Amino acid sequence: MALDGGLAGKVVVVTGGSRGIGRAIVELFAAEGADVTFFYQGNAKAAEEVLALAAENGWSVRASQVDVRDSEACRSAAEAVADRAGRIDILVNNAGVIRDNVLVGLEDQDIRTVLDVNVAGVFNVTRAVAPFMISKRAGKIVNLSSVSGAKGGRGQTNYAASKGAIDGLTRALAVELAPRRINVNAVAPGVIETEMSESVRELAGDEIKGRILMRRFGQPRDIANAVWFLSSSLADYMTGQVLYVDGGFKME
Amino acid sequence: MAAEINKTDVDAIYGTVAKTIADALGCEVDEVKRDASLIDDLGAESIDFLDLVFRLERAFKVKIPRGKIVEDARGDLPEAEFEQKGVVTDAGLARLRTFLSEVPAERIAAPLKTADIPRLFTAETFAKLVIRAQREQGAA
User: Fold this and answer.
1) What superfamily in CATH does domain B7-139 come from?
2) Helix/strand/coil for B96
3) I need a labelling partner for A248 at 20 to 30 A (CA). Which of A76, A97, A191, B131 fits?
4) How far apart are CA A178 and CA A202, in angstroms?
5) All domains of chain A, ordered by start, with CATH?
6) CB within 8 Å: A134 and B51
7) Is the ipTM beyond the 0.95 threshold?
8) Contact criterion met (CB < 8 Å) for A135 and B47
9) pLDDT digit string (tens) for chain B, length 140 residues
10) Which of B31, B8, B9, B10 is closest to B19 using CA atoms?
11) Residue A134 and residue B55: Cβ atoms within 8 Å?
12) Which chain B residue has the Cα nearest residue A128?
């Protein structure tokens, strides 16, 4: 029997979808026949590239410029999707930033930006989207955590704190939404080859690889595959989980 | 002071409100009796109220702040005079009887915990909530 995750025709919102892992998620879901809207903060050129690729392939992909720190913008963007498509089936909270530095060297802004985007942003988008799922008594929410949330690395106190918060949010929200048949899970990537991890890979690439059992960095598609699974009907019996996709990452 | 909400106003939107309640609670529309308590008679939970208000906002294209019913019922009565240690005062009960005139008066009796006020809410309470939101939006 062939596996069918049932994603064709699903209405999906992906935040931070113009680059890196988010883009891989958008591409995978769209190629499966989902109706995907991705939010992007400011890189219009990257967003246009994704839209061009979608047009070439005949995918249903739309872009919406939204700063997830702005709760009102999140609300109107979510409403626009629901008004057009009639519902929102899947939310992937992927948008995230890093501002790495050792704790004593962090500026106020480095702390605030990471927590505002990575944590408050997830609250804002989820508050805007979840009511549509509650009304339909169905839905899948997948949050992007990080291996950093459980196994913090040097220079990542702000980022680790933000991802630890996402793990907690994921479990608590799973409790709240289970009675409405909404699954809430997280995927925790290890070190993935994206622009965001470029500096850390350049600075300490070999050392980090030594701590990865698979001895290689992950690809965005590795993460998209896990997000796909948790968004599909194959994961109907999973909720409140953080799924590690990190090649077997060991703490120092 | 806002104009009174009369029966004709409520009748005009009641059908849509009752259908919205039935959709939110997953029950039949005939089960939504005008004076039935949504919590005690129809089994609504607090998350259902959030869903219901969300659906009403979309159905009627209005904005309804959360906690609006109790806030409006209290009106200009200071919070300390409306409730003490989580229990509604006599002055508070009098406010509720006037404001929630659709709720059978015997249900608004002491002792009433503030946390239990939502148990009083009926389908008509939500119809009136929509009408007030429409009027405020129109006036703005």
Assistant:
1) ACP-like (1.10.1200.10)
2) helix
3) A97
4) 42
5) 11-245 (3.40.50.720)
6) yes
7) no
8) no
9) 456 888 899 999 999 999 999 999 989 999 999 999 999 999 998 889 999 999 999 999 999 988 889 999 998 999 999 999 999 999 999 999 999 999 999 999 999 999 999 999 999 999 999 999 999 988 76
10) B31
11) no
12) B54
